[in-house]
Design a protein that fits this description.
mainly alpha, homodimer, 2 strands, HTH marR-type domain-containing protein (chains A, B), DNA-binding, ArsR-like_HTH (chains A, B), Arc Repressor Mutant, subunit A
DNA sequence: CCATTTACTTATCTTTTGATAACAAAAAGG
DNA sequence: CCTTTTTGTTATCAAAAGATAAGTAAATGG
């Protein structure tokens, strides 16, 4: 198989997915968070609680800037901080009730957009989609 | 099929792909362009020539800000401007020789990273990957 | 103990990005 | 023609994000 052609398809695919996911989360701008702050909240949504170091790693932010954004998120009442009892240097951050609610709304809206996209598919086609997602993750993303 | 479960998988998939593509284009930071400028160059790479309006639409930038970034890219010698003869209001932008060369390097590096990821796959598996990409584009991205 | 390392914070400054107003030139359409 | 619309530019200001220096407190490891 021609690896270059496959790479081209991968690039086009990536561009398309990026556009779709951007469209699905478009509504977030109405809420009062910046893009970087949203990325932090999204990360908290999937792995809670998290330390500033973990966030800095995964969101690709310096530790001082992570600290600043976390402070802003706390001021907005979207997340909470607690000291780790096992290691009192570590700070554990999690979404507050409001933060959970907000991210819940965002995900619900994204899911609704996703549902519309797959609305016309049959059961068999849905299974194909699921299989394709799993195959790409397994073979390409590792 | 459970649509919520499928959506969860889609979210995880999107996050993974985002991470991979970020890793593949990591080396661009060494070149002297900002993230927004890189997006413009990437867009020019796939569709040339482009007008400021088209860029503004696709890269999600206001027209004044697009104009500013295009000026910076021209100052850096990465793209060129020419007036459309058919409609002299329209400005046609394309990559300069340097710009082509730079994006060529970026794509070559990304392709190299991609090759490593698929290095262990058999011919049949590569065909599966290609089929999965096409299926998702057809059924979900439209 | 005590020096060193780790985890985080605060403060400050620069760069990048976003938003808006005002303008110019070409085209479109009576 | 002459008004209106389209396309793009320039200028300016504010907000967001990046970078770096300096400092604190807790843990680690002789």
């Amino acid at each position: 198989m021609d690896h270059s052609a496959l790479f081209q398809k991968f690039v086009a695919f990536t561009a398309d997915l990026h556009e779709v996911s951007h469209e699905l989360t478009r509504g977030v701008k109405s809420e009062d968070v910046t893009p970087v702050q949203y990325k932090i909240l999204e990360y908290m949504m999937v792995s809670q609680p998290v330390t500033p170091s973990e966030i800095a790693d995964c969101v690709d932010l310096s530790l001082p800037n992570t600290s600043r954004e976390l402070r802003k998120l706390m001021e907005k009442g979207l997340c909470e901080k607690a000291t780790d009892d096992a290691d009192r240097r570590r700070q554990l951050f999690r979404l507050s009730t409001d933060g959970q609610a907000m991210m819940g709304r965002v995900f619900a809206q994204a899911q609704q957009g996703f549902e519309q996209r797959i609305a016309g598919l049959t059961e068999d086609e849905l299974k194909e989609v699921e299989a394709a997602l799993e195959l790409l993750q397994r073979k390409v993303f590792q």
